[in-house]
């Protein structure tokens, strides 16, 4: 008969709840921390105070590490870094060429969309003018047939 001793695992227990909450708030960024703090103050003021103290102590309120970690958010927050040098001239040249190519493709696509809109507008206007002229001819012919 063998006895196995099991050590308590805290990875899924109640102690992981604060860690998961912190991760969830970090994924959503500084506005989530502020909202949690305000809600904490509104409903249970010691919780709001605890969140405030933790956010200040962990420097989550005053640095950029708390911004959302989603790809689109990183691109938004990192947009100002597009034109800065990485220190590697080959990569910077590749990045500049790729950005130039993407801007050209975007301009070409926007031009294509503009031509489509103009063609649709012209088609709708021509249709309107034909309907109008048909109605005008129909109204002009109607009084002549009655008289």
What is shown here, in short?
With 147 residues, the chain is mainly α. It is built from five helices and no strands. α2 packs antiparallel against α3.
Overall description:
The structure is a single chain. The protein has five helices and no strands. It folds into two domains: about 1-80, no CATH class; about 90-145. Residues about 1-10 and about 65-75 have low confidence and may be disordered. Helix content is about 70%, strand content about 0%. It has helices at about 15-30, 30-45, 45-55, 70-75, 90-145. By secondary structure, the protein is mainly α.
Please write out the topology.
Elements: H1 16-28, H2 30-43, H3 45-57, H4 71-77, H5 89-146
Helix pairs in contact: 2-3
The main pleated sheet reads as: none
- Residue windows where pLDDT falls under 50 for at least 5 positions: 1-10, 65-77
**Overall pLDDT, averaged?**
77
Q: What best-fitting shape do the alpha-carbon axes yield? A: elongated
SSE class: mainly alpha
Q: Roughly how much helix do the residues carry, as a percent range?
A: over 70%
The structural domain count equals 2
What's the total number of strands?
0
Number of helices: 5
Order of helix and strand elements from N to C terminus: HHHHH
The first-to-last residue Cα distance is 117 Å
Beta-strand content bin: under 5%
In angstroms, what is the radius of gyration? Answer: 32 Å
Short descriptors:
single chain; 147 residues; 2 domains; 5 helices; 71% helix; elongated
